[in-house]
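Schema walk-through. Below, the input block comes first and the output block second. Nothing else is stored per chain. Lengths vary across the set, and this one has 333 residues.
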Amino acid sequence: MAVLQTEMLTLADYHKRKDPKGGITQLIELTTKESAIFKDAPFYPSNKEDSEEVTARTSLPSADAWGRINKGTKPTKTDVDRWLEPIGFKEFLIALDARNNPAPGALMQMRAQELAGHAEAMAQGWERAFLYHNVDENPDGIMGLIPRLDDVNNPQIKQRVISATPGAKGTDFTSALLVCWGPKKTYGVFPPGFAKTAGLEHEDMGKVMWEDGEGGKFPAWVSILRQWAGLVVADIRSVARGQFKVSTLDAKDTTVRDTLIRMIHRVKLSGMGRAVIYVHPYLAEILDLQAAHGMTHLTVKSYMGEELVHVRGIPIRVTEALSTSETSVEGAA
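--- output ---
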């Protein structure tokens, strides 16, 4: 697959190039370090203030007709569909009691440590949102990947959802996701007004009077951490989902590897893009053991500075944000 790295900047890449002097680069690094998805997803400024308008071609004209001398050609056209992908934000309001005086010179360090903890939590929250958030159930936020791959009554969706245990039911399932990141495929966005910080804001409010909720007030060091982001699936052919019943997972079983290979064949990998598979640690452990024992199509090699298992050349990242208590997708192939 052809990949033009300069046009596929992750959040960390984008901020380093747009603000080489530093700025909030450390916060960006913290959020990407704690998010498997943020390590891979390319981000771009959105084409609208609060959303990304996507235009996708849905049909091509037939090329079966032949021309004939002295006979005209009928006009043809393509069909397109347009929709909006929402952008949301997550926000923390951080307050530290100013009366708690640390050792001289340690105030900034204490506030930085608190900010770092919130940045890590922010990354984990975005990871879950990119995977599971459903705007049909909660209109605030973004539309995650898995809710888009639930409706197997839709023929376009059905062929991209594979069950490792067809017909099995329950609520002890986990998913693997194959995403081909790239423009016109699947990518992240942030509002154009936040291009310098790639959607991440940190505002130091200084020392303010803070209410304790019981009628009292005290001085506090206050800051706001906010991040804007959206997830765009411009081409549903760039994603696929495999679902596994946790209680049947076996390190000697080839079902996990075989399901991932089937997923690869359901995704359009041609053109510019970066294909990555995301799995829960349970699946990663099985695949790592099988790679260690020489199972075909599984290898361990470096990807973006990390040693990862690959299946047919596609890296497999681990994320604990993938649940092990999903409901089975009935009707999945």
